[in-house]
Amino acid sequence: MPNIKSAKKRVKVTEVKNARNKALKSNLKTLIKNADAAIAENSGNKDAQVKLAIKRIDQACAKGLLHKNTAARKKSSLACKLNKVG
User: Fold this and answer.
1) What CATH number does residue 21 fall under?
2) Under 8 Å between Cβ of 23 and 12
3) Distance, CA of 86 to CA of 75 (rounded, Å)
4) How many CB atoms lie within 10 A of CB 19?
5) Domain range enclosing 23
6) Could you tell me which of 31, 30, 18 has the C-alpha nearest to residue 65?
7) HSE of 26 in the Cβ direction (CA atoms, 13 Å)?
8) Whole-number Å distance between alpha carbons of 16 and 31
9) For labelling alongside 44, which of 18, 73, 78, 82 has CA 20 to 30 A away?
10) Total count of domains within the chain
11) How crowded is residue 29: how many other Cβ atoms within 10 Å of its Cβ?
12) How far apart are CA 31 and CA 39, in angstroms?
């Protein structure tokens, strides 16, 4: 545990940010899984699921949770899967 006041504060701030980032990444992974499942089942709401997942990927990229190339790869993968289904 740090002794300096500012270092103690950084520890607290880092814990809060880590918790927030972990929750956002977990939610993002869940949305991507839901979109993949909707595409695999060829359900009626697959377009909406993919659109929501892509939106959240963009938001995560804007907040710095994902690298821009990672975000582009995930979006491209979803779009390819959706286009193969038709």
Assistant:
1) 1.20.58.110
2) no
3) 17
4) 10
5) 5-85
6) 18
7) 6
8) 23
9) 73
10) 1
11) 11
12) 12
Which residues are CB-neighbours of 34 under 8 A, at least 6 positions away? 49, 53
Per-residue tens of pLDDT for the chain, all 86 residues: 899 999 999 999 999 999 999 999 999 999 999 999 999 999 899 999 999 999 999 999 999 999 999 999 999 999 999 999 87
In this structure, are residues 35 and 47 in contact, taking their beta carbons and an 8 Å threshold?
no
* DSSP per residue, 44-73: TTHHHHHHHHHHHHHHHHHHTSS-HHHHHH
Distance separating alpha carbons of residues 16 and 20, to the nearest angstrom: 6
Return the DSSP state at 4. Answer: S
d(CA 79, CA 86) in angstroms, rounded, equals 11
